Structures are given as structure tokens and as C-alpha cells.
Amino acid sequence: VQLQASGGGLVQAGGSLRxxxxxxxxxxxxxxxxxxxxxxxxxxxxxAGITTGGSTSYVDSVKGRFTISRDxxxxxxxxxxxxxxxxxxAVYYCYAGIxxxxxxxxxxx
Length: 109
Fold this sequence. Notes:
The protein has strands at residues 2-6, 9-12, 17-24, 33-38, 45-50, 56-58, 66-71, 76-81, 90-95, 103-108. It is mainly beta. The protein has a 6-stranded mixed beta sheet with strand order 2-10-9-4-5-6, with no helix packed on it. A 4-stranded antiparallel beta sheet has the order 1-3-8-7, with no helix packed on it. A hairpin with a 6-residue loop joins strand 4 (33-38) and strand 5 (45-50).
């Protein structure tokens, strides 16, 4: 089983990015999935999570700006990030029992 995160990049404040986490060798449908991020010098934090039933949760700092969703037919979990802020800059990881490799998001002011 492997997780592959993609979609990171450099964006100006106020912009949007869409991260995708794809699973190989297994299916997301039987796992809750979380998107985490780790900024330089900070601990890794849970940003958003989605249960097998589709219930979602968000850290307060991203509520109303980020949306997590899952597509079980494509075996992916996505994180739509809107109105990005410089403080969103971090390496973003997906987690579903194992960690993906991370994708860097840089938001310039």
C-alpha cells in the first residue's frame, strides 16, 4: 500500500490549490483519511479529516476555506484549499494508516 500526494506548489495569498492523495494497492473506502501539515519548526498538525461515511472535520484555522472530499471510485481523497494565507505554508501529508510522502505548499504574501 502506498499513498501519493500531489498538487502542491507556489501560490499568492488569496489563491487556491487542490491537493490530491491517491492510494495504490488498497482502497480508501475502508479507511478514515486525514490531511496533515507541518510548517518549518512546528509540529505536524491535523488540518482536515474525512471518515468512511463522509463526515468531515477541520482545524479552526482552515474552516470555511478548505474542503476535504473523497472519491472512492478513483481511490483518492482531495483537499481543496481556497483563500490561502502565508501561514498555510507547509508540507502537506495525507494519512490513512500510513503516511504519504508529502507535497509542499508555499503561499507568498
